[in-house]
Amino acid sequence: MTDFNGRTILVTGASGGIGGATVRQLTTAGAKVIAAARTLDSLSVLCDETGAQPVAFDLTSEQSIKDAIEGLDLWGVVNCGGFGGEIATPQDTDIDVFDKVISINARGALLVIKHAVPSMIRQGQGGAIVNVSSQASLVALTGHISYGSSKAALDNITRVSALELGKHNIRVNSVNPTVVMTDMSNFYWGRPEIGGPFLEQMPLGRWATVDDVAAPIVFLLSDAASMITGVSLPIDGGYTSR
C-alpha cells in the first residue's frame, strides 16, 4: 500500500533536510519524484543520488510557479518549501519579515496547489497533497508570531483544500513536526537555555530527525491512508498533548 510506481510527486523545498529525506523515501518506494527548490544547483547532489527530476521556481512568484508546474502530470504534491523568518515578540516584529514568511509558507503553498490541482483533476486518478506545517500552528511558542501564523494559515489551506478536492478523490493533509535540528533551527533551538527547557516539556524528550517527518509524509501520500484527509498530524514527541 506504499507502492508509488507510476505516480509522479512534486516535492518543494527538496534542497532542505525534510524535503530531501522525503525525496529519498519516495524514490525508494517507486515514485517518480520532481524535486523543487529555488536553484537547480542546490538539487544536484540529491538528484544524482535519487534520480529525481530537478525543477527550480520561486515560491514568492505566481508566474514562476505556474511556468514550472503547469506542464507536469502530477499525482501528488508535498509542500515542504519554507522560511523561518525571525524570533520576535508581536510588538517587535519586522512586518516585512512577517510578510515574507506568509508569502512563502502559506501563499506559496497555496499557489503550488492552485497550479498543480488542474493536472491532477484532468488525469482522473485522484491523488494526495501533504503540506509540511509545524507544531507552532497548534500551540503558542515564544517568539514565533510570524512563523506560527504562517503555519496556522497553511493548516486552514489544508482543511479547505481537503473539503473542496475530496470530490475528485484528492486527499489533502498536513504534518506538524516539532523541531528538526537543521541549520535553520539550530540558531535558536540549539541554545541550551532555549532547547533544554523545551525538551523537558516533551514526553519523548528528543529532537525529531528528518526521517521521523518524512516517513509520515510518505504514509499520508500512500494508499494506506486512503481514508485520511483534512487532518493536521502532530509529529512532536507528544509536546502538543500536554
Largest sheet: 7 strands, parallel
Silhouette = globular
| Percent range for β-strand residues | 5-15%
Physical arrangement of strands within the biggest beta sheet: 3-2-1-4-5-6-7
Distance between the termini: 33 Å
Q: How many distinct beta strands?
A: 7
The helix content, as a percent range, equals 40-55%
Uncertain spans, ≥5 residues at pLDDT below 50? none
Order of helices and strands: EHEHEHEHEHEHHHE
Enumerate how many helices there are, as a single number: 8
Structural class: alpha/beta
* Mean pLDDT value: 96
Radius of gyration: 17 Å
Report what the structure shows:
There is one protein chain. The chain is of the alpha/beta class. Helices cover 43% and strands 15% of the residues. The protein is built from 8 helices and 7 strands. It has helices at 17-28, 44-50, 62-69, 95-123, 145-165, 183-189, 192-200, 210-221; strands at residues 8-11, 32-37, 53-56, 76-79, 127-132, 170-177, 232-235. A 7-stranded parallel β-sheet has the order 3-2-1-4-5-6-7, sandwiched between helices. Strand 2, helix 2 and strand 3 form a beta-alpha-beta unit. Helix 1 crosses helix 8 (210-221) and helix 4 packs parallel to helix 5 (145-165). The longest helix has 29 residues, at 95-123. The two termini are 33 Å apart. The relative contact order is 0.15. The mean pLDDT is 96.
In short:
This protein is of the alpha/beta class and 242 residues long. It is built from eight helices and seven strands. The two termini are 33 Å apart.
